[in-house]
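Worked example 4.2. Below are the chains of a multi-component assembly; read each line carefully before continuing.
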Amino acid sequence: MRFIFKTDYAQDIRIAKHGGHWFWYGLLLALLVAAPAFAGEYLLTQLQFIAIYSIVGFGLMLLVGFTGQVSLGHAAFLAVGAYTEGLLQAKGVPFLISLPAAALFAGATGIIVGLPALRLKGIYLAIATLAFNVIVEEIIARWEDLTGGNAGLLVKPAVLLGQAVESPAAFYYLCLALAVMVCLGMINLLRSPTGRAFVAIRDSEISASCMGVNLAKYKTLSFGLSAAITGIAGALYAHKIAFLSPEQFGLFQSIEMLTIVILGGVGFLHGAVLGAAFIIFLPQGIAIAKDWLPPGVATSGVQAVVFGLVLVGFIIFEPLGLYGRWLKIRTYLELFPFYRRGMFRRQKAYAKSERLR
Amino acid sequence: MVQFVQMLLAGTAQGCVYALVALGFVLIYKATETVNFAQGDLMMLGAFFALSGGTLIGLPYWAVILFAALVMAIVGMLIERVVIRPVLGHPAFTVVMITIGVGYVLRGVVTMVPGWGTETYALSTPFGQKVLRVGGAVIAVQELAVIGMTAALCLVLYLFFRYSKLGVAMQASSQNQLAAYYMGIPVRRVNMLIWGLSAAVAAFAGILLAPVTFVHSNMGFIGLKAFPAAVVGGFGSVPGAIVGGLIIGVVEALAGRYLPEGFKDVAAYVVVLIVLFVRPSGIFGETTMKKV
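Applying the procedure described above to all two chains together yields the following structure tokens:
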């Protein structure tokens, strides 16, 4: 059991709360850096996907988990990032310029969506973002001169500092570096006044505006930043998949992205990574489990059922997600034998009703 | 002109289906403040039950409708009891994610049931391909039947909510759960019945839609078009859902006819964005301010 005695206000916003953080996260990073040495090509591909989806998770977590806004249309931002990257890369623009361009363009789209979304709340916001997603998907499919339409768009490997990033290990390092940078950026953002304003808006819009938080400004900012981060993930996604078509960025992608956030644990940065890893390994788990099922059952059906059951099960039995489960286990061990079942019980949020009762 | 009337009628028929699915959304939303993303999949399941009721048991068309509605009502109540009630009172969006999960499960389960699977089926109706010719316009009897049956269902629902004890109790509990509880209304049981009712309405919508899109495991995606319908009308308003559905159906039909290709699929969403920007809570939506 570790007690942290706070003697200074700056301690509250320190990146690592105690030496253990440095040790364990350092170890994790060292393992990840060393991964190409011992991991096979298959595992490396999975790790690349986890890194990309983690970035997606960070972006969505900023909006859903920390600002409390709902988006059912984040696949559109992924699409904007991916297509920007793909098209710029085809024009021979180096990665160091095209990546920020993808992020900026996706961020600008996010701000455009965020501005009208200021008036909308809860389910209306969800529907508006859903509508946006469908419209973007349709635009990509119809604007054939630019995007190749339904025939798709081929994306070449990224060119970084005059070198094509082709080998799996090199691309893995690129994904890892960006994921770590985005993660650090998120940590820093969340301990800055801006991040505190986001959290204040999530917890109560009325209180936040009473405390002087400019709701319009911070909500738009959150939308923009979230979209920009998703755009970065989109750029990596474009290079990873190497072939873009509009149906990859439909509503299902958006729901899958939300699932990352919810399974991982809404409101925890760790949750984004855990959720991404879970989503990537789930199909493998299903493929293994399928051997026990009677033959003749459609794989897509099994996948849908398992996916749905996992989602429902998590929300009913573990609303805090994977990271919440880990928190509980850790607290149990730390406090042994004084852990009580009710410690993490969530109070029911009747007050948060969107209607007057 | 003749063509315009035909388009209008086809749009209205399609809009009726949207309206019925939207009605299901609204009923559940008013009762439990949950948006049921699985509504389209309930509709799909209802259509499959109707299919089996017709082919396996050999019921006539009218009995098939009752059979499917009854089975779906039970399914709806089960869903409420098993997954929705435990999370009631949690943030609205978690509950939405649950219904998305339920939708996945329903879609997956349907593909695993022997005899249903991933195939596409046709549901036979007594109207078939018959057409009426009125002054040069060719009108499918099917479309008239859809409109007529929707109107009849709306009338039944209106009478139910207006005059039956249970209907009034449902209205009361959806307006103010606490007050309804104090008045001796078993709010939880009423909520369960509302889920049942909404699933039955979904089954009805599924049966009406079946001749247009056929019956297959992905026909529930029409539910995504019914969202705009519900939102356009204002999510808490039953007449709004009907009007919204008709608006979306007609706009879609006209967009398919007069605008370039591709606009038909997004017309519903463009309409909903415009309505939301002008009136953030829909046409019939109540706007309330929160007291601090």
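Take a moment to check your reading of the output against the notes. The two ends of chain A are 45 Å apart (CA to CA). The longest strand of chain A covers residues 153-154.
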